[in-house]
Amino acid sequence: MKIILALLVLIPSLSWGAVTFKNGKIQDGEIPGKIFEVFLKENFGLDKSDTTINIIGGVELHGKSDGRYDVYKKISESLDYNILEIEKNDTRFGETALRFKLGKECVGIVRDCERSTRPYTRAEIEPILSDDMGRNRDNIWASFSFKIFNDPNEWSDYVNIQQWQNAVGDYSPMFRTVIIKDVGLILANETSKDYKVIDYKDKRCLGGGSKYGGKSFCVANFKEYKLLDWNELIKRKWVDVVHNINFHDDPNQGYFKVWINGELILDEKGQTIWKTYPGVRKETNRWTYNTGIYTSGVGFIHELLLDEVSISRTCEKLKLENLNYDCQKLLNQTTQKKEPYTDNDVDYTDDDVDYTDDDVDHTDENYENNSNDDEDIINLDQNNYEIEWTLEEVGNLDSKKIIAKDILTFDSNIGSIIEFGDDEYLSKDIRTKFNYELVDRIINISGNFEIEGFDNKELLIQILKSGEIFKGEKRLNNQEGLAHKIKVKIRKI
Questions:
Q1: Distance between terminal CA atoms of the chain?
Q2: In the chain, what's the furthest Cα-to-Cα distance?
Q3: Which residues contact 8 (CB under 8 A, 6 or more apart)?
Q4: CATH architecture designation of domain 16-345
């Protein structure tokens, strides 16, 4: 027996706290179809005394009403990993945590994986919605602890790990907690200037269709606040997040506060929930909550641990004492006003602006998408395309400038530049060495990016179809630490 135990200790792939894998195969006699059953169990089979999830009424797989259980169960049968596991070896508090994983495959329903703009992959949970859980005007406290489990460099550029959504399917999220590679942990807010309601359908906006009189709900302003630097996230340590949000459509009464690891980082006032527009039922205009992994970064590997996920209407019921925090001490904290990392008013008259909401869910049967995506993709290798590179300082639209413009052609799925144009900042030699590859519905551009004033770094941009133009962008920091975006447009000549 001692010899057997010694051998088991030496097996690196063995984990006592969760189902394990060796050489890509599931161990312990489990099969993916059975592993998925954790989604089907009430509160994922956790004991009522377990504090991993502290939400009245419990939680379930996000979008259960969309038939996601059947879709995810079918997907899990072809995967050599678990989408969700109960983790017992690495927890923030107590004996269990949740481990989410998304591999390189797209995990999601059709609306996620076959969108005309880009595919999205997700594994999220949400509270079981009730009249008591989500309200329009509501003061809510919430907390969660997270930890990047795998190598953060394997993650895609932009990953939502928590969303304050709206029960109206044609409304955007109010707040999102996002991990941006090489930047850090971000709180994104879209409600500060409410919607611009326009009288026509714009694919960059929500709404549209007969039930809204053909109008579109267009986010007027987009803000991002940096909560934690990237160099803190790459340490792969537990991070504690506390939210206090007063949901209100009056900017004089709404506010949101964020604590990171017990320190008040953000204290902002303003509109925090959308107004109720004609055609929208007032009782559905209320907050909902998602947490897990949600990203357009298909082809990457994301593993995330979550623990102590709690929602309440008082700080005391969050059980923050488990994390060694005191509610009164949190409430007594003050902080200086924090300037947004990004603060952009969206101009819907500018064709160069590509604004695509992260969680568009067009459930209106009258919604039509007349773009001929498949035909254009199929014929891509039969045409020449203009490729334009621009550089813009984040939050400063006046800084936008064209840095290169070329003619690109495709032979099968491999692209090459056949005619060079402007090259004010991005040298011809560098553009020649880029790899241009068409993969399904996406053009990937990769190579070593070099431009004066910026740190040299590997470049990977996914160029996605938006109308008749393919667009994509990459966030960069210059040598002074200022955030920039390099944007790429590809249009048929």
A1: 73
A2: 76
A3: 14
A4: Sandwich (2.60)
**Cα(475)–Cα(488) distance, rounded to whole angstroms?**
12
Tokens linked to 46: 């956790």
Structure pTM? Answer: 0.70
130 φ/ψ angles, rounded to the nearest 5 degrees: -145, 170
Q: For tokens 């930890």, what's the residue?
A: 147
CA dist 163 and 292 (Å) reads: 9
Separation between Cα atoms, residue 177 and residue 374, nearest integer Å: 33
CA distance to 61, 83, 92, 243, per residue, from 100 (Å): 12, 6, 15, 22
Q: What is the mean pLDDT of each run of 10 residues along the chain (493 residues)?
A: 40 38 40 67 84 90 81 87 93 96 90 77 88 86 97 93 92 95 94 90 75 84 95 96 97 97 98 91 90 93 97 96 97 94 79 41 32 35 76 75 84 81 75 76 74 69 66 76 80 78
CA distance 240 to 259: 8
Q: Domain segments of the chain: what residues?
A: 16-345, 373-492
Amino acid at 420: F
Structure tokens at 337: 């006003």
Say how far apart CA 58 and CA 52 lie, in whole Å: 11
- β pairing state of 302-312 and 53-54: parallel
Instruction: State how far the Cα of 42 lies from the Cα of 53, in Å rounded to an integer.
Output: 11
Determine contact, residues 290/124, Cβ cutoff 8 Å.
yes
**Which class in CATH covers the domain with range 373-492?**
mainly beta
- Dist. CA 407–CA 492, nearest whole Å: 10
The answer for residues whose C-beta is within 8 angstroms of residue 492's C-beta and 6 or more apart is 376, 383, 384, 385, 468
